[in-house]
Design brief:
- Strand 12 and strand 13 form a beta hairpin.
- The chain has a domain of 95 residues.
- It has 15 helices and 16 strands.
- With 437 residues, it is of the alpha/beta class.
- The strands form 4 sheets. A 9-stranded mixed beta sheet has the order 8-7-6-9-10-14-15-5-16, with helices on both faces. Strands 11-12-13 form a 3-stranded antiparallel beta sheet. The protein has a two-stranded antiparallel ribbon with strand order 1-2.
- It is globular and about 55 Å long.
- The structure holds flavin-adenine dinucleotide and iron/sulfur cluster (2 copies).
- The site of one iron/sulfur cluster has 15 residues, from helix 2.
- InterPro entries: 4Fe4S_Fe-S-bd, 4Fe4S_Fe_S_CS, Co_F420_Hydgase/DH_bsu_N, FRHB/FDHB/HCAR-like, FrhB_FdhB_C.
- Keywords: Iron, Iron-sulfur, Metal-binding, Oxidoreductase.
- This is Coenzyme F420-reducing hydrogenase, beta subunit.
- Its cofactor is FAD.
Length: 437
């Protein structure tokens, strides 16, 4: 009897590609009480074709794509292959104001739809379901609607399989916005499914340090809003740079919390699962274009700007056309160093060497050796993640967040150094490494 397919239980980010590729619809996704999404396999339908294993971004590496001349001629161990790094912003002030950074993704999608370069775009929209926050992928054909989809969703995302099945039925050419893990899965799936390959014209990736669980937003409401109830609207970013979390209730009450405040409360640090901790993409290396918050270059930021890493010739063509048509403005950055964030260093560390990991996940052959800072990061994650995992421990988590700076003060100072000068030195060293060496 053949073995059932492996779906790695603790190394799954819930990207959904296994369910998309399964010819028997044997995989469904469920939200667990801890707020993470996990696949459930119906083995009675499974025919053991193992396609799900072959596309899983944590089991199969599509890095070979990088050596096929699709991606830019510059390469860097920390950001992957690229053609250009620029700082850009939407020329539409409202799109820029409502976007996470500079509204560049939204402007680019509007441009693609208006000029009929694609029939539809596939993007997630935020929904509040039974008081919990999720993103659900949808197929959008009307450019005027895209503003409703702008802004980052810091919550689990569902439904890519459903949206892409609709795209396939309607024979649409599309652009999709996705997290790095989903892009890796999609690139794998495109090898096996010619329909998917034909329909996906542009893949836009966002930088991603982690995806907070559905419980993370609950924790923020519990911490800042005294357990507000009947929430029917949530927006994590937008309203300028770096923006606000906006929460509205059915009875018309409205709250806003500064991005930095809610993000640093434990929301951004401890409510993400082991898969995100082990993941060592961050920069969406397999996208046509990657988009990020310009944390490392906030000069004249105004309403917001987006850091853009253009990777493929197709990505550059469409970006420059949108610039020529007046949708986007940009300027080149003095150096590609601005595309590396402190979190990139953590993601590109050889996790297998850290103290407590039982897995070794390496992507390509370019990873940094662990340092004091990455080991401290791991201990901090384990402690915080444990406290975040149970609602009854959330008061302790809040205390931990307050005390942490004193506990880790010298090491945090070291981190700061790493963030600035050390990053530059490391970049100089690793920029000479070649992918696949
Ligand atoms: C979970 C998450 C983590 C991130 N982590 C980092 C980080 O560590 N460092 C960093 O520099 N940048 C990070 N980003 C990216 C950053 O927040 C902005 O999304 C990016 O700079 C683009 O800004 P924009 O104003 O051009 O996009 P907008 O014009 O605001 O458009 C955003 C687009 O992204 C889509 N989108 C929103 N959420 C998701 C999602 N979860 N999955 C797929 N598509 C989505 C929207 O539908 C919309 O089309 C993260 C984004 C997400 C969603
Ligand atoms: S092995 Fe094939 S049929 Fe079974 S769950 Fe995976 S993709 Fe579906
Ligand atoms: S950190 Fe990696 S695994 Fe987690 S959501 Fe982001 S891309 Fe996916």
């Amino acid at each position: 009897m053949s073995k059932s397919p492996r779906i790695p239980p603790d190394l799954c980010s819930g990207c959904g590609v296994c369910s998309l590729i399964c010819p028997k619809n044997a995989i469904r996704f469920r939200v667990f009480t801890n707020g993470y999404i996990r696949p459930l396999l119906d083995s009675s339908n499974c025919i053991n074709c193992y396609l799900c294993e072959k596309v899983c971004p944590f089991l199969e590496e599509p890095n070979s794509l990088m050596s096929r001349g699709l991606y830019g001629n510059k390469e860097n161990a920390l950001i992957g292959k690229y053609l250009k790094v620029v700082l850009a912003w939407s020329t539409n002030k409202y799109v820029r104001f409502m976007g996470s950074s500079g509204g560049v993704i939204t402007s680019l999608l509007i441009y693609l739809l208006r000029k009929r370069h694609v029939d539809a775009v596939v993007v997630p929209k935020l929904h509040v379901i039974n008081g919990r926050v999720f993103g659900v992928y949808e197929v959008v054909t009307d450019p005027a609607k895209l503003i409703e989809y702008s802004g980052s969703i810091y919550a689990p995302i569902f439904g890519v399989h459903k949206a892409l099945k609709e795209v396939s039925l309607r024979k649409y050419k599309i652009a999709i916005v996705a997290l790095p893990c989903l892009i890796r899965g999609l690139r794998n799936a495109m090898r096996f499914n010619p329909r998917l390959r034909n329909s996906i014209r542009y893949v836009f990736g966002v930088y991603c340090y982690n995806t907070p669980s559905a419980s993370a937003t609950e924790y923020v409401m519990n911490t800042f809003l005294n357990n507000v109830s009947n929430v029917n609207h949530v927006r994590f970013r937008g309203f300028g740079w770096p923006g606000y979390l906006i929460i509205r209730t059915v009875n018309g009450r409205s709250f806003r919390i500064k991005y930095q405040e809610y993000s640093d409360s434990g929301f951004g640090q401890y409510f993400y699962d082991y898969s995100c901790f082990m993941c060592n993409d961050q920069t969406a290396e397999l996208a046509d274009i990657s988009f990020a918050d310009p944390w490392t270059y906030q000069v004249d930021i105004g309403l917001g700007k987006t850091l853009v890493v253009i990777r493929t010739a197709e990505g550059w063509r469409v970006f420059s056309e949108a610039v020529e048509e007046g949708y986007i403005e940009y300027r080149e950055l003095p150096s590609f160093i601005y595309a590396v964030q402190f979190t990139t260093l953590l993601k590109k560390t050889l996790r297998g060497f850290t103290l407590l990991s039982k897995h070794e996940v390496t992507r390509g052959n370019y990873v940094l050796p662990p340092s004091i800072s990455t080991i401290v990061h791991e201990i901090d994650y384990r402690v915080g993640h444990f406290l975040a995992s149970n609602k009854r421990l959330w008061n302790l988590l809040r205390m931990y967040v307050e005390l942490k700076p004193y506990v880790y003060l010298p090491l945090i100072a070291l981190d700061y150094k790493l963030k600035t000068r050390w990053t530059q030195i490391l970049m100089k060293i690793v920029s000479t490494w070649k992918i696949g060496k």
